[in-house]
Design a protein that fits this description.
The chain is an alpha/beta fold and 592 residues long. The protein contains 24 helices and 14 strands. Among the domains are: 90 residues, 2-Layer Sandwich (Gyrase A, domain 2); 118 residues, no CATH class; 178 residues, Isoleucyl-tRNA Synthetase, Domain 1, CATH 1.10.730. The chain has a five-stranded parallel beta sheet, sandwiched between helices. The protein has a four-stranded antiparallel beta sheet with strand order 1-2-4-3. The chain has a three-stranded antiparallel beta sheet with strand order 8-9-10. Helix 1 crosses helix 4 and helix 21 packs parallel to helix 24. It is globular and about 85 Å long. The two termini are 34 Å apart.
Length: 592
């Protein structure tokens, strides 16, 4: 429990014992605001008393005085108080900060087990193209949420389902058959996902050309799109795949293997991983048993053409197709079956889908159908819906090959970090290997921090140049502060020593209070599935530390007690920054 929470809880207790409010509604709804004191008036925390005026029919000053007296007699942490125009300012005893600092150290690596298993799904790409900027936000969000949940005491399973079948991969396969000349990743020197993605773009160009030719011959555009020879060939290839055609299956296996190898390289550099991987080719038939079960129970209905639907009008939605007239399943059918299988095989208490907000309706329907089918755990399904990533140049289009490739972007971030570091001349004394590690850690860290500091629900504009800035709310600025702390500790030959008798000044108190908030911030981030809370907390800690550092001499401090305390405070700040960045998937370096 952080310092503010301790004061808040004691305040609630004191209000009851001093004022004895009988009205249950007033008592339950009454919460006074406790804030860190940022004014020139004496005191560490300020309590706003005005909400009590109407209930108690007393002046704000009178209420503040009664509360202040109660705090000094009924708590062991308030040294004194002052009242300024209805605001109660509490000065906290020095030992309370020292004890709190000691408690932070003792509990820093402790986790309170939740005894719940949570599955987090993220990434889940198609196998017809390399990962792009949008995938980066998805992966970073999912991975960070998983890390935060782990830190908050949950058992976590990280998973993805790869969309390895369907018309999209058949388009790449067909284009390769027509013009590939037996190219492979080895023969071209290209990553497999990029090679396959090139053929997806080639298919689209050929498809558009055929459509234009048919339109010139007098076809309506919509008819031309359906009748273009190349799309008909791709559709036949998909049917052949579903029938188990050996030639098609062999090519499908080979080209998907190229893509998987390419994805693995990207994931490694991005620093994300998975505990389980599912493939749509193994799951697309799941859910059909559920459909039959729903029909028997009268939850679903069959139309005259044989298709099966779910009526969600009572839930404020429409009717949803679950099985086509020819008996084939749709994506919703597969997702229903996959969800049931995951809960059955993993004994989950919660399942989180990290998917962009363009799929909000899909997941609303999915969760409501599972509830109608009687699955109690459907209440514990969550869609981590996030906004799209755009660039200054506008939206990306996969088919046209105008996406921002994830690998290219990571390389650009590395190059920019290298250029910036060389301009500043801060790494000249490092070995070449150490320099390379620093460029990579700072560059990729800048990308991750810029993505994660924004609330997931918000659409974001990604600016690579802005993200790599060494000042402001950026990854490099935070990493630089961490490196500065490590340099300080190294110069001081720091050895852990707990200081028990030291009078803290205001900037030291502020830093202790910020450090005490770490676990509470992690819990809120886990509850809201928002890594942005952790990112911006770490930035606040860094700002607080830099203020402390500028106003308090450390290495040249003559008072050994003050020097040791400030080193101890610096070391704990470094640990907090490192742990916070780890929850975001961001690394640190000891020198920058």
């Amino acid at each position: 429990m952080n310092i503010k929470e301790i004061i808040q809880n004691k305040l609630a207790e004191i209000i009851q014992t001093v004022f004895q409010i009988d009205d249950v509604n007033q008592r339950n709804n009454l919460t006074l605001d406790v804030q860190q004191n940022k004014t020139e008036f004496e005191g560490d925390f300020t309590i706003v008393t005005f909400p009590l005026v109407k209930i108690l029919k007393k002046s704000p000053d009178a209420i503040a005085i009664e509360l202040g007296e109660a705090f000094t007699t009924q708590s062991d942490f308030v040294e004194s108080y002052t009242v300024v125009k209805g605001f109660l300012n509490l000065k906290i005893k020095n030992n309370f900060f020292l004890d709190n600092l000691k408690s932070i150290y003792q509990k820093f690596d402790q986790k309170e087990p939740k005894h719940q298993t949570v599955m987090v799904e993220y990434s889940s790409p198609n196998t017809n193209k390399p990962l792009h900027l949008g995938h980066i936000r998805n992966n970073l969000l999912g991975y960070s949420v998983a890390q935060i949940l782990k830190e908050d005491g949950y058992n976590v399973i990280k998973t993805q389902i790869i969309n390895d079948r369907g018309i999209h991969i058949c388009k790449s396969m067909l284009a390769w058959e027509k013009s590939g000349k037996n190219e492979t990743p080895d023969s071209t020197g290209l990553k497999g996902d990029k090679l396959v993605g090139n053929y997806y773009v080639a298919f689209d160009k050929a498809y558009k050309k055929e459509i234009a030719e048919l339109v010139e011959q007098g076809y309506e555009e919509e008819v031309a799109k359906k009748q273009a020879p190349i799309i008909l060939e791709a559709q036949k290839m998909l049917l052949d795949w579903e029938k188990g055609d050996e030639i098609v299956k062999t090519l499908w296996t080979e080209m998907n293997a190229w893509v998987y190898a390419g994805f693995a390289e990207t994931y490694k550099r991005l620093g994300v991983d998975f505990d389980q991987v599912l493939y749509e080719s193994n799951t697309y038939l799941l859910g059909k048993d559920l459909i039959q079960e729903g029909l028997v129970k009268g939850i679903l209905y069959r139309k005259e053409d044989g298709s099966v639907w779910c009526d969600l009008s009572e839930e404020g939605l429409d009717h949803k197709l679950l099985l086509r007239a020819d008996g084939t399943s749709v994506y919703m059918t597969q997702d229903l079956g996959t969800a049931v299988q995951r809960f059955k095989e993993n004994a989950l208490q919660k399942l989180i889908y990290t998917v962009g907000n363009e799929q909000d309706y899909h997941f609303d329907v999915l969760f409501k159908i599972l509830k109608k089918l009687g699955y109690v755990w459907a209440e514990n399904l969550f869609h981590l819906s996030y906004g799209m990533v755009e660039l200054p140049a506008g939206k990306m289009k996969s088919r046209e090959g105008t996406v921002v490739d994830a690998d290219d972007l990571m390389q650009e971030m590395y190059e920019t970090a290298k250029e910036k570091a060389q301009e500043l001349g801060k790494l000249e004394t490092l070995s070449d290997d150490e320099k390379e590690k620093s460029y990579e850690t700072v560059g990729i860290g800048a990308l991750k921090y810029f993505m994660l500091k924004v609330d997931p629900k918000k659409k974001m504009l990604f600016n690579p140049a802005e993200s790599i800035d060494f000042a402001g709310n950026t990854g490099p600025f935070i990493q630089y502060t961490y490196a500065r702390i490590q340099s300080l500790l190294a110069k001081a030959a720091y050895q852990k020593s707990t200081v028990t008798d030291y009078e803290l000044n205001s900037s030291e108190k502020e830093l202790v209070m910020n450090l005490s908030n770490f676990k509470e911030v992690v819990s809120r981030a886990a509850e809201t599935l928002s890594p942005a809370l952790v990112a911006n907390y770490v930035y606040d800690v860094v700002k607080s530390y830099n203020s402390f550092y500028q106003n308090n001499p450390i290495l040249n401090q003559e008072n050994e007690n003050a020097k040791n305390f400030r080193l101890e405070l610096s070391e704990l700040t470094g640990r907090t920054i490192k742990k916070g960045l780890e929850l975001l998937g961001i690394g640190t370096v000891n020198r920058m």
